[in-house]
Design a protein that fits this description.
2 copies of one chain form a homodimer. By secondary structure, chain A is an alpha+beta fold. Chain A has helices at about 10-25, 30-40, 45-55, 70-75, 80-100, 140-150, 150-160, 175-185, 225-230, 235-245, and strands at about 60, 65-70, 100-110, 110-120, 135, 190-195, 200-210, 215-225. In chain A, the strands form 2 sheets. A 6-stranded antiparallel beta sheet of chain A has the order 5-4-3-8-7-6, sandwiched between helices.
Chain lengths: ~260, ~260
Amino acid sequence: MAGGVSRPGETVTQRILSILAVFEKSLAPRSLTEIAHETDLAPSTTHRLVAELEEWGALQRDAHGRYQVGIRLWELGQHAGRQVREIARPLLQDLYTLTNETVHIAIRERNEVLYIDRVYGTRRVPQASRVGGRLPLHATAVGKVILAHEDEWLREAVLAQPLESRTPNTHVDPDALRAELAGIRERGYAMTVDEVRIGASSIAVPVFQREGTIGAALGLVARAEDLDTLERHLPALRGIARRIESSVGGFPMRTLAPERRRK
Amino acid sequence: MAGGVSRPGETVTQRILSILAVFEKSLAPRSLTEIAHETDLAPSTTHRLVAELEEWGALQRDAHGRYQVGIRLWELGQHAGRQVREIARPLLQDLYTLTNETVHIAIRERNEVLYIDRVYGTRRVPQASRVGGRLPLHATAVGKVILAHEDEWLREAVLAQPLESRTPNTHVDPDALRAELAGIRERGYAMTVDEVRIGASSIAVPVFQREGTIGAALGLVARAEDLDTLERHLPALRGIARRIESSVGGFPMRTLAPERRRK
């Protein structure tokens, strides 16, 4: 019942979090009416809660009176996984200097990869991801290398789900993917061409946690025609991955669980 | 009344936000008891609200059962000021490549500078700030250059406040600062030596918004003894500042208002 009465049986906390979740769906700023519509909260409730969130700085209004996530929430969010990003950043920078290619590091978050940092210059390559953005595990080099090194039950759980085709070249056949992942485990790196975006190729190596489990993946992105040059960067990629491993004890990660976050 | 009854007259939203605000005070993870103590909420209320925040992903527990900001809040926070960071990042990267010095960009947030991005390698210089961190306007090169170009009433309001000495070399005399800021406006850049941290020097230039008002400051940090080399980088610094200006329409910023955020 869009824009109708507040949903009964819901706590105020859940209502507030549902307002914040509206801004996860897309980058577009929202009007009060849109927030009420998307949360199914009564306009009066929406108005009151949004005003409190704005007063604190969790939301802020743009020049057109529309709401977007506030800079205070960005500041607060910087505390999450800070250790990983602060240790990894200068090493990503070194890898960029060595290779002159776009460098990124990603972790698994449920059944997707989440890009936690990236270093790139103005020489852009077609890229589908952004820092704080997610992509399917099966279609990206970072995702494939993580999936290849996860426990078998988790790998099978991901392969049992419907696998999205981002391009006509995305590998989506579970049996073919299972064989591809076995090859990645053996070689120790993953490569993709045109699987997420036509014109982009990528390579990634695993970053292990202290106890030996997979923690993250470190990757490079280049234009599809530069695929061969990416493989030449493997020694640099592996060297930096080892340095990240020896400095970071663990990575922030959530276990695989039923998708409930986009409600 | 630490750890006592929930404060009456406070909305649930305010209670939730006061829990999040605990994590702004320091980077340390907190136990439930510490959260209850720092928010002055009843243990039962704290337990219930923290559980809801954890369930959503706003908070997450570490291996010791202590709470820290969750990765979902980091993801959500990436939406704030995204346009600025996405446009500025490759340009900061180019500036780093040109100068091989630590590069950062900062905006004014109330009466402090807030560092919104930074590019640096493994060759570290002593630095007092971090991305998402704040420093006093009067003591940093980025802060001085912003303050120099703000409206006079705002500059005077900042100079009328108690000015913190971060080191014995921090400039804190309002009259001397007023003259220094006039010189910065004339020269078009600010420099500091040992004002925030002994052993670090910095230089910064203004980044203006489309309508001509000051939006941000772009700066370099080096070891104090390399102060002279910083001035040689002025043409590169100014060139990149102009490129940021021509790409970014406006910067996220809040007006100067009474300090109410650390309550």
